[in-house]
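Office hours follow-up: a student asked to see two folded examples consecutively, so here they are.
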Amino acid sequence: MQRRLFLILAAAGVVATATACASTPQTTPVAASTTPRAPVTPTPTVTALPTPMHTPTPTPTPAPTPPALAKVAIPEGVMTDLPGDGKLLAWTVDDGSNSEVIRKYVEFAKRTGTRLTFFVNGSYPGWTENAELLRPLVKTGQIQLGNHTWDHADLTSLSDDGVIEELQKNHDFLMSTYGVDARPFYRPPYGYRNHHTDHLAAEIGYTTPVMWYGSLSDSGLITDQQVVDFATQWFLPQHIVIGHLNFLPVTEVFPQLENLITSRGLQTVTLNDVFNH
């Protein structure tokens, strides 16, 4: 009896063991396939480009129209101011020892329409360096060029031939570089002149020495506030005011000078705007 029971229990154990083996998951790793897989090429993401905006072509600023003035005859002798009782200002600028100052003056004139008369010393390289920038304004008459001698010589200290050479050499430079005949206007350097030098200049067509009635006093280095102060004193109706193309402070206060002219109701003019010749 006991032996029979043992056999029954043993048989049950074998069945249980087989059942347990059947329910246990297979843990033996499966070898990876050695067949290479074709690479997958990702589909590129296409980003739509923005539609370009149409940028209109800028309209060039037209050259300022010369003022409609009834021109008058050039007075005999030395000129120091403009005739009549108008609101005209002749802003004249001399020398040109600093090429950057010449450039900034021309850019200021181009930007604002201010009319200027430059009295040129052709020996300074800035007049050649800035010729391309300056020529269009000379051509329209917005900037007038006058003769200030070749290298800023004191005419009263020269021989007769020396006086004529200084003016003639500068005249030839203005003709060849800008196509300008500056006669009859010239400005004697330092304002040094006398009847004899006037007569010599007139022999070659420079009959009108142009002096001034007020100065920015910037032939030497002064502060920008001093420039404004002198302009406040001298930017007045019918004045010929002298400035210089030598030092930078004046270029720092162009907006103040322009505002001064506007607030006083002044109209800038060249000498050619005013006088028949």
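And the second, which I mentioned at the end of office hours:
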Amino acid sequence: MTLKKLIVGMLASVTLVGGAAQAAELSIVSGDTGNGLQFLQAQLEKFTAETGHTVTVVPMPSSTTDQFGQYRLWLAAGNTDIDVYTTDVIWAPQLAEHFVDLSAAAADVIGDHFPSIIESQTVNGQLVALPAYTDAPALFYRKDLLEKYGKEVPTTWTELRETATEIMEGERAENPDMWGFVFQGNAYEGLTCDALEWVKSYGGGQIVEADGTISINNEQAVAALEEAASWIGTIAPEGVLAYGEEESRGVWQLGNAVFMRNWPYAYALGEASDSAVAGKFDVAPLPAGEGPEARSAATLGGWNYAVSKYSEDQDAAIELAMFLTSAEIQKVRAIEQTNLPTIEALYDDAEIAEAAPIIPNWKEIFQNAVPRPSAPTQADYNETSSLFWSAVHNTLSGNGSAAENLEVLEADLQDLLQ
């Protein structure tokens, strides 16, 4: 018997007010970035006060790649110590067999969420995770510097490179640490997100299309990666090749970047009292590429809560997942964390609009959201993504040209998927 279950047994005689149910001791895993972990702890304290159940947070690395690897090990082993998993939007098809079907428990609230998000967490007719918030990245820009140099917000990557270069060079007389653009360039899932946006914005497809066609080896994708490679050491530091979300935000929030690609969570942190860029920035849709099919593209993200089939406290765990994805908690998330709700009505909430005015405005960015190819690749998505980000990282690092690396990637994906 695990220590956790032993404690639960000791608590068996402890009942909630009214004696209706016994208190449980639950565990939840989280790899939240920024101040997300503190936010989660605060909500769990509310949950305990309301239900009597106590919850232990098992911290995870912020890298989603590392998280997924650990999840897969635990679930394959039937680990009973973890009751609730915090899951990326792309993981449902890969981990569904290990999670409880929440369709019945959530029947009264499913219709409140965006249908596409519920669909993303439904596998073979079973709702395997409840959405907590959705995500789509934006271009963060220094509005004070654009005004100073008489520049408009760039709408293409070419314009971004040109504007970033001019402002960066102008500002370095006063700030030698200034860079033009920071993003997520490390070899992990975050680079898949960034690079998918570049490729899609040039009309280069979505790596693997919905019908299973491997589409990545094309001229538009080559052009997109050649453009991105040109940023390294010019408008972006060479160190960006090791940046995740937090490293990018660190440079940005110190006032050392003109532009940043990041997720909504970085907005509230950037406006904090200790931020060098508070009141000096805004967000816009990510730039488009070049060519007839060019468009702005933002990788669809988002996080959900799933209940493990191996949990020995499934009812209490379902109660926790329902609580953390409720309209009440989503509203607090939107106000305090600038996380995008999955409950459609909250986009018209006056208190959210007043406290976080970017939330209603993020609808335009969300409408440009592009899914990663987890649906057509199913259980092979993780390896598909790894092959893609490795090819992109090699290109950014100067290890082979974009054309060479995408040709190899196509062959590797054919071996994997076909």
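Two things to take away from it. The first helix runs from residue 3 to 10. The longest strand covers residues 301-307.
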